Amino acid sequence: MTSIKTPFTFVGGKVAATKDVATVINQKIENVLNTQKLERILNPSYGSTVASLINEIPDELMLVDAKIDALMDLEDGIKNATILDMWFDASSITSSDPTLNVYITYRLPLGVVQRSNIKIAVPGLITEDTIV
Fold first, then answer.
1. Which CATH class is domain 3-121?
2. Which has the closest alpha carbon to 104: 47, 28, 52, 53?
3. Where are the domains of the chain?
């Protein structure tokens, strides 16, 4: 399996690619989580609802809901790996660093367990103290 390596780089006039299965799966996980549902015109069910967490600082119930939804979205969007666990670090969201850390544990086709950390940008974090 060969995939275009992100971020995009050019090597010898060609787009860099990778055959490393773990790198390909990491990129697929990041693509699913950073794509909102209905964003892809010809594939409206592709993507995740994790982006809904960026509208406010999430509480525990929102995180549990998002985890369940994201696990189902990842199962639909990734066919070459089995997602074992996923958790969010909402404490990482601050006004100076508005990113949500997502940690994922998955199994590759040959049984190797991998961990991935994906950062999802939270543009324009608004709290009750923000002057609009």
1. alpha beta
2. 28
3. 3-121
